[in-house]
């Protein structure tokens, strides 16, 4: 295996000179730099990334905290974030909190000790104070973590408005939306507030079912879908995230209701599972890949001590109309 000493001998310079060329530190004459770079190429030398990171007091790792790695939204987000991090020469450490607050707290402590270079968090179980007291660059996905912590989200006001207007257009008169708890400060709360407001402006009854915080497993979706369809058998329009929307369709059909003739559905997120049902479901699509790229770009700015052009990013949503809001 070629070492830095081999490169130094081949270029007839000292190992310290090779190190300065590799790290971009200190003065090196142009002619000497060219000799070192030529030796590196001829010997096919690959620098030891761990050693270089130690030199710069970096780990080369960014942690990504999510509540449920198997959930389609977070799975797609992690995949895109890992690709984006790799393009910057970084690796990722995935932290799955399994919906429990203590796991998120434990991860933060571990990340402090192992000195990751930055944290991207999409989990909502811990109080803001835990992140505010963490001495690491942090970027939040769809959560307000207070001053100094950038947030990347979509325009949820527009998402809620489009969803509501789609169900109004479909002729619904008695709708239900599944919301998150309002005890957590997140931009996504705005979509539920807007949805409810638009419905009431049109004189349409709007029921709001509040989900438990940070619950994303499908057994929970099936449980609450049965509760909802039992309690609200006459609802003619549902608004929920992809997985829960599909679960509501299934639960309603088990009770003898015809989809999409007896009830309309608008899903939210636009993950791959929203395309797996027929008749197709109308969906408000979040640009998950772009959300990941923006999170990575921001964390890179913070790690490299650059001031981001924008601390808070708000991306556009789009409507993918399916058969679930067709008129009959």
Number of strands: 12
Strand content: 15-25%
Order of helices and strands: HHHHEHEHEHEEHEHEHEHEEHEE
Number of DSSP helical runs: 12
Biggest sheet, open or closed, and with what strands and sense?
6 strands, parallel
Helix content: 40-55%
Overall morphology: elongated
**Averaging pLDDT over every residue, what do you get?**
87
Q: What is the alpha-carbon Rg in Å?
A: 25 Å
Strand line-up in the sheet with most strands: 2-1-3-4-5-11
The span between the termini is 71 Å
Low-confidence parts:
none
Describe the structure.
This protein has 328 residues and is of the alpha/beta class. Helix content is 44%, strand content 18%. The chain is built from twelve helices and twelve strands. Strands 2-1-3-4-5-11 form a six-stranded parallel beta sheet, sandwiched between helices. It has a six-stranded mixed beta sheet with strand order 7-6-8-9-10-12, sandwiched between helices. Strand 8 (237-241), helix 11 and strand 9 form a beta-alpha-beta unit. Helix 1 (4-11) crosses helix 3 and helix 8 runs parallel beside helix 9. The termini are far apart. The mean pLDDT is 87.
């Amino acid at each position: 295996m070629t070492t830095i000493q081999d490169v130094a001998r081949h270029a007839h310079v000292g190992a310290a000179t090779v190190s300065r060329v590799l790290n971009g530190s200190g003065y090196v004459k142009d002619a000497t730099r060219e000799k070192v770079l030529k030796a590196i190429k001829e010997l096919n030398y690959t620098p030891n990334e761990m050693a270089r990171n130690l030199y710069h007091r970096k780990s080369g790792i960014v942690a990504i905290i999510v509540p449920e790695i198997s959930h389609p939204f977070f799975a797609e987000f992690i995949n895109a974030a890992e690709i984006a991090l790799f393009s910057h020469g970084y690796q990722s450490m995935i932290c799955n909190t399994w919906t429990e607050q203590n796991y998120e707290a434990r991860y933060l402590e571990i990340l402090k000790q192992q000195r990751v270079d930055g944290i991207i968090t999409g989990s909502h179980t811990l109080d803001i104070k835990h992140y505010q007291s963490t001495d690491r660059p942090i970027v939040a996905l769809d959560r307000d973590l207070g001053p100094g912590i950038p947030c990347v989200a979509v325009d949820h006001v527009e998402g809620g408005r489009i969803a509501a207007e789609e169900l109004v257009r479909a002729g619904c008169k008695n709708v239900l939306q599944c919301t998150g708890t309002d005890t957590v400060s997140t931009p996504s709360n705005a979509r539920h507030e807007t949805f409810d407001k638009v419905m009431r402006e049109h004189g349409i009854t709007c029921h709001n079912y509040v989900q438990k915080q940070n619950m994303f497993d499908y057994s929970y979706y099936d449980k609450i879908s049965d509760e909802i369809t039992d309690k609200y058998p006459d609802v003619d329009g549902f608004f929920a995230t992809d997985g829960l929307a599909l679960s509501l369709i299934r639960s309603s059909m088990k009770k003898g209701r015809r989809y999409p003739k007896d009830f309309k559905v608008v899903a939210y997120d636009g993950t791959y599972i929203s395309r797996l049902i027929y008749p197709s479901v109308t969906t408000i699509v979040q640009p998950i890949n772009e959300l990941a790229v923006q999170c990575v770009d921001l964390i890179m700015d913070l790690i490299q001590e650059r001031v981001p052009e924008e601390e808070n990013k708000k991306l556009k949503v789009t409507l993918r109309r399916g058969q679930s809001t067709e008129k009959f």
